[in-house]
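Before the break, one more example. Copy the sequence into your notebook; we will annotate it together after we see the structure.
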Amino acid sequence: MATSATVRAKQVKLPRSATITVRKQRPSPKSQVEVEPGLGRIHFKNKDEREYRLRFQKSEADTGIDIVIPPHGTITVAIKKDDEFRYSVVDIKGGESNPFVPNPNIDPFIGGPIRN
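Here is what the structure looks like once it is written out:
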């Protein structure tokens, strides 16, 4: 008996965690990262010698929240069921980065979305 794509998609289990690495202020992977709802964790690992601000926003109108990631540090973010947000890696000394630019592929400091 053939299995439909919808049924196969429901059978795929999302990972409990994912890691986003920051090098030279650029996140990798930049594309969508999806983890298990409720239990899922996203780890941000800074491989640089300097600290950055990770800015998380749900929408363009949302001012978001900034979290400092220290040099060679790791920040872990938990994600709720049906939650989705974009993030950007911002210089600690200032500067603005909007994760909702028309073409996020132009800005190397923007990543996501992160979702479950």
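The radius of gyration is 15 Å. The chain has a mean pLDDT of 83. Try to locate both features in your own notes.
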